[in-house]
Amino acid sequence: MTTESKKPPTVFISYSWTTTDHEQWVYELATRLMSDGVMVKLDKWDLKDGNDTLAFMESMVTSTEIDKVLIICERGYQAKADKRTGGVGTETELITPKIYGNVGQEKFIPVVSERDEEGKPFLPTFCSSRMYVDLSSEYEKGYERLLRTLHQAPMHRKPALGSVPSFLFEQEVSHYESSNLIKLLNSAIENNPKRVRGITSSFIDTFLGELKQLEITSIDNLLDEKVKEKIDESLPLRNVYINFINSLCESDEIDSDWIVELFESLYPLAHNQKSNSYYESQFDQFKFFITELFIYTCAILIKHNQYKVLSEVFNSEFHTKNFTHDNLKIRFEGYRFYIESLERLNERLGYRKFSYTGEILSQRADNSLISKEEFLNTDLLLHYISKILRPDERYFWFPTTYMYRSTYAHFKLLSKLKSKRHAEKIKCIFNADTIEELKLSISSYSVAQPIRIQNDHFNQAPHIASIIKPDEIATML
User: Fold this and answer.
1) Cβ-based neighbours of 292, under 8 Å, separated by 6 or more
2) Which runs of E-coded beta strand occur in 274-371?
3) pLDDT per position as a tens digit, 407-452
4) Strand pairing partners for 13?
5) Are residues 383 and 398 in contact, defined by beta-carbon separation less than 8 angstroms?
6) Percent of the chain with pLDDT strictly greater than 90
7) Are strands 68-73 and 10-14 parallel, antiparallel or unpaired?
8) Which residues make beta-bridge pairs with 329?
9) What do you get for the CA distance between the two ends of the chain, in Å?
10) CB atoms closer than 10 angstroms to residue 342
11) Structure confidence by residue, pLDDT tens digits, 212-242
C-alpha cells in the first residue's frame, strides 16, 4: 500500500497543563506529528468553548476512531494521575481499566518527556510496567520510533516464516559453527570491518575441526566405498566454504595470504599424521575435497574479478607438511591429487568411466554461485596456467574434468582476451606486465602429446589456441 492511499492514523494526546513551557512542548509535538501524516486530536484545537470537557475526554479515550492515545509522562502528569486529581485524574480513571484489563493492549502509549534527579522516568502507576517512548533525552531517535509505531512502519520487521532446513534430517557432517561464522562475517563486513580478520582466522580453525569428522578410522575390504561415502558427506562443508569465500570476495576483504594459509593447513589431512599403520587411500576423501576446494576457490576469485589475488595464489609457495616432511614446499599443482580408491571402485563395480574422480567432480558442480561450466573451465585454466608458468616441471595440473566440457563450451575468460580492456585486467594471472608479454605467455603453452586420460581415445583437453589465438589478443577495444 502506498503512503498516499493509506489512511492516516488518528491519535489523542493526554497530558497535564503543568507549566506553560510544557504546554508549548506538547503543542510543538502535536504540530510536528500532523506535518508527518498523523491526525492529532488535541484539546488546544479540538475542544471548543461550551464543550463538555468530561465528554470530550471520555470520547477520546473510548472512541474506536482513535487509533492511539499518547500519554505524555512528566512530573505533573504522574502526580495528578496517581492522586486522581484534575482532568488527568479523570482520564486516568478511564484509561486504567483498559490497560489492566488487557495486558496485550497497544492503544495507550506512554511518552516520557521528563525524568527525575536519578534519571528515572515519571511514569504513573497504571502504566509503570509498559514499554514507553523516550523523548526526554535523544529526542530525534525517540520521535522516529514513535512515528514508526503510529504509521505501523517498524525499523525491524519480522521476517516471513521459512521451511525447516532439510539438513536437520540428513545424516551429514555437523557444520553449524562454520555456518554461523558466515553470518558473523557478513555482519562484521557491514557493521564492524575490524572484526573480519579475526573471523577469517577462526573460520580456518573451525573448518579444519569439522572436516576431520570425515576421517576413516576402521579399515576393511570396502575402503573404496567408505571413501565415496565420506566424499558425499563432505558436500555441506564444501558449500559452507564456497559461501564464506564468496562473501570475502564480494566485500573485497579477500587476500592471498588467507587462501595460502588455509590450503597449507588442509594439505596434511591428505596424508597420515599418526605413527601407526595405514593405507594411503584411507585419506582419499580429503584429497578429493582439497582438489575440489582449490578449483572452487579459483572460480570464485574469477567470478569477482579478483585477478591480482588469483595471480598471487598461482605464484605462491605453500609451506606445509606430510608424514615424511615437516617443511614441505609445494606450488598450487600439489593440490591436484590422483584419487586411487575412486578409480579402483570404478573398476571393481564396472562403472566404465574414463575417470570416476572427474565424473564425481562434474556431478557435484551444481553450486548456486558457480555454474558447472565455470567450474569445468576453471579446472582447465589451472592446467594452462600450470604449463605456462612452470613449463619444465614434471608434475603439472591435470584437468580431470576435461571430458565433461562440451566441445562447443564457451570459455568467457579466455575468449574475451580479444578485448584489450579485458586483456589488461587479466594479464597478471599469466605473469604478464604488458599485452606483448601476455601474447608470449599464451604462445608458450606447449604439450608433447594430447592431454587425455589413459584409454580415452575419444576426448582430449583442448589446446589453448583453440580458444584464443595469441595474434587475436587485444585486437578489439
Assistant:
1) 238, 361, 364
2) 318-320, 328-330
3) 788 899 999 999 999 999 999 999 999 999 999 999 999 998 889 8
4) 70
5) yes
6) 66
7) parallel
8) 319
9) 47
10) 26
11) 889 998 887 789 999 999 999 999 999 999 9
Could you give phi then psi for residue 378, rounded to 5 degrees?
A: -65, -40
Sole residue written with cell 502504566: 127
**Rounded distance between C-alpha atoms, residue 354 and residue 455, angstroms:** 7
Judge whether 318 and 263 are in contact, CB under 8 Å. yes
- Residue in 402, 378, 419 with CA at minimum distance from that of residue 453: 402
CB-CB contact of 109 with 13 (8 Å): no
Give the whole-angstrom CA distance, residue 227 versus residue 346.
12
Cα dihedral angle (380, 382, 383, 387), rounded to 10 degrees? Answer: 150
**What number of residues does the chain have?**
477
Unique residue bearing C-alpha cell 577469517: 200
Whole-number Å distance between alpha carbons of 122 and 74: 5
Rounded Cα–Cα distance for residues 244 and 232 (Å): 20
Model confidence at 322, pLDDT cuts 50, 70, 90, reads: confident
Coil, strand or helix at 327: coil
Q: Confirm if 442 and 431 have CB atoms less than 8 A apart.
A: no
**104 touches 50 (CB < 8 A):** no
